[in-house]
Amino acid sequence: MALLGKSGAGKSTLLRCIAGLIAPSSGKVTYRGAPVTSANPGVAMVFQTFALLPWLTVLQNVEVGLQARGKSAAECKEKALKNIDRIGLDGFESAYPRELSGGMQQRVGFARALAVEPDAFLMDEPFSALDVLTAENLRTELLNLWAAPDFPTKAMLIVTHNIEEAVILADRILVLGTNPGRIRTELPCRLARPRDRRSEEAQALINEIYGIMTGGDQQLPSHAKSDTVATETSLDTTPLPLASVGGMAGLLEILAAHGGRGELPELAHRLNLDVQDLLPLVEAAQMLDLATVDGAHIELTNEGLSFVKGTIDNAKSIFARQARTRAPLVRTICTSLEATDDGSLSEDFFLDLLSRVFTRENARQQIDVAIDWGRYGELYEFDADTGELKLERPTTAKPKARRRRPPDPERLRTKQ
């Protein structure tokens, strides 16, 4: 099974609840009918960051989980060596993590998890820290292990932001939604193995998942609807996508260079971007009506084309108008500043309001995005020293209009 979802949907949190590393805020996790109140004895977990103990050798790292379960020294060594061999690391038993490449370190993580012969094997983005070729090799080897008759694990659950990875690996795909976190869709994947991601069936499923993840996803908590800034400025808690203006502009420029339209899977592949990097840019362009999305197809609107083709001053004007009318938090900041005598308010005012609905960390992210957007559109200024937001005062003269830079795919990667 694969868990997909936007950043903040709760993928890793759900995985940690299943593992018993954190307690759910409501509901319960059970293993073989018994509530999980501490580390789940039936699962083992592999992390994105390898999580090896640097002062232990490969053999000792693999033995750690077995030792924690009270196995004898002889049994620990026997099972550890068996799984080191299974994962292709025989010969490196005495090596330390610092002597290994990223791919080899992750193999140690796999061997350590498999050594305890768990019922369920949990993986939290295990390939995302690896280069493309190493990740592809490890995915293939994982599937080969899965197909082996002596593979001890009954089920595998992977958290990923890579849609193609989910389609290649999983028999069931769950797409999580945000605000509030929930399961939006469950999709079966009945493609024959080995799977070819370039096949029509795989591409159709990939496009379907892109369509689900770029579709509407907002379900506001009921209490959020009563929060207000002032009589004329209700606090709309629809979150801003965590996308910079530069990243969004880069995406739109690339679309314009390819006839104003494209397919999201192809864009992600061409730019070497993961879905968690691409979707916030797509959502931001949608929110500002600079692009429309239909399934996996994205196309510039007239406003988006004008934004890309015009001068910098014209682009700023378009962005300011769209952000003021279509980005809820930007609109709230503008109307609140206009309601004050001197056109200024502390950022803490908005952080406190947002913290009623968002975590403090997420509220901070929302304010940072709103500051970036408002500054670019010259809607308001921000003084980082005082933490004050202030209405932008018009200048008497504008510099000569400048042309926008030609599209450069590298800019988008750099911004991200």
Description of the structure:
- By secondary structure, this protein is α/β, with parallel strands linked by helices.
- It has two domains: 2-214, P-loop containing nucleotide triphosphate hydrolases (Rossmann fold); 226-396 and 409-415, no CATH class.
- The chain has helices at residues 11-19, 58-68, 73-86, 102-115, 132-147, 163-169, 200-214, 245-257, 264-271, 275-287, 302-309, 312-326, 328-338, 347-354, 360-376, 409-415, and strands at residues 2-5, 30-31, 34-35, 43-46, 120-124, 155-159, 172-177, 182-188, 228-230, 233-234, 261-263, 291-294, 297-300, 344-346, 380-383, 388-391.
- Strands 4-5-6-1-7-8 form a six-stranded mixed β-sheet, sandwiched between helices. A three-stranded antiparallel β-sheet has the order 11-13-12.
- The longest helix has 17 residues, at 360-376.
- It is globular.
- It starts with a strand and ends with a helix.
